Amino acid sequence: MAIRRIVVQGDSVLNKRCRQVTDFNKRLHTLLDDMKDTLAEANGVGLAAPQVGVLRRAVIVVNDEGEMMELVNPELILQEGEQTGPEGCLSVPGKYGMVTRPDHVKVRAQDRYGSWFEAEGRELTARCFCHELEHLDGHLYVEHIDRFLTEEELEAYNAAQEEE
Ligand code: ZN
Q: According to CATH, what is the number of the domain 12-163?
């Protein structure tokens, strides 16, 4: 297990479409383990393989229970509802923007051994699934925003959330 360097916006690896994972071998397991270490170290809620420079369809998402889920070759199979809230990315450090996403999603993915499973997420987890899956097609959340939030706007939003 090891911490890998997180690629930041401007590196072309983040704009490329990732290839399907076809070998569920030791190399994949090491990648997933390293991604989990890297995500924990960065204190994030999701990480996609291209963010550590690997153009393969694999992501880690922290689910509603706070557990790290490994999703290999993930696909969205259901999207419903809508939510708008601040979103950030470990590859765009220190910045946030308001993004509208589905409020409830279901995904189908393979585990590290190649078995298919389904998972679902609401609210932040739904947002995270959508965000991470976009990375696999070379897209960043910044494509959905007009501008970044100011620190004051972000603080005001978070304060309002806490009052709810
Ligand atoms: Zn991201």
A: 3.90.45.10
